[in-house]
Each structure stands twice: as C-alpha cells, then as structure tokens.
UniProtKB/TrEMBL annotation:
Protein's name according to its UniProt entry: Phage protein
Domain of life: Bacteria
Pfam families: Phage_connect_1
Matching InterPro entries: Phage_gp6-like_head-tail
Lineage of origin: Bacteria, Bacillati, Bacillota, Bacilli, Lactobacillales
C-alpha cells in the first residue's frame, strides 16, 4: 500500500488516471471504515463513483468550505458521505439485525 506522501505526490503531479486510482482507493478505504467492512459491498459502487468524481473535481480546493466568484458559488460539505448517510445507516442497521438473528437462540430450563 502506497504511503500518504506517495499518494499526495500522485495527486499533485500525475496524469488524471493515476489521480483517479488514488482517489478511488482512498474513497473505498473511507467508506469501508464507515461500514466497518474490509471490502466495499457492490451496492455502494454508485456512491463510490459519485464521491470519487466530486473529490477529483475538487483537487486543489481541499479544505475549502465555500467559494464565490462573479456569480458562481460552490459550497463543500463537511463529509463527502454526508448525503449518503441514510444508505450507510440502513446498511449498518441491516448488519446489526443479521448479527442479532444469529445470536438469538432458545433457552430451555428443565
């Protein structure tokens, strides 16, 4: 796995396809940590696509909250995943239910 320094260097000095590879890998890592999984479920591929595109278009403007110039205003959310919070929480709740059902059993007292 490349270091943070290598990734930042690629984001600053590499062609678009290499930048996209770094952004996709880092986006998947972040989503995996939010979902508490080691591999991103395929049902989240559309979210990965949208977040990667947003992050790619924002290169050079990281850390900005908003930007205005001659009638153009852009605002950036605190988290790239905030608009997908419902899907993420639904998935986490589904996983909890599955785990709970596995643990549920019967107790018999004789």
């Amino acid at each position: 796995m490349p270091s943070i320094t290598e990734d930042i260097t690629k984001l600053l000095n590499s062609p678009a396809n290499e930048k996209l590879e770094v952004i996709e890998r880092r986006t998947r890592e972040r989503l995996n940590s939010l979902l508490n999984v080691s591999e991103t479920p395929s049902k989240f591929d559309s979210i990965i696509y949208e977040v990667v595109l947003k992050r790619f278009n924002r290169i050079g403007q990281e850390g900005m909250i908003s930007y205005s110039q001659e009638g153009l205003t852009m605002a950036f959310p605190d988290s790239d995943f905030s608009e997908y919070e419902k899907q993420i929480n639904d998935y986490l709740n589904e996983e909890k239910e599955v785990q709970y059902k596995k643990l549920r059993g019967k107790a018999r007292f004789v």
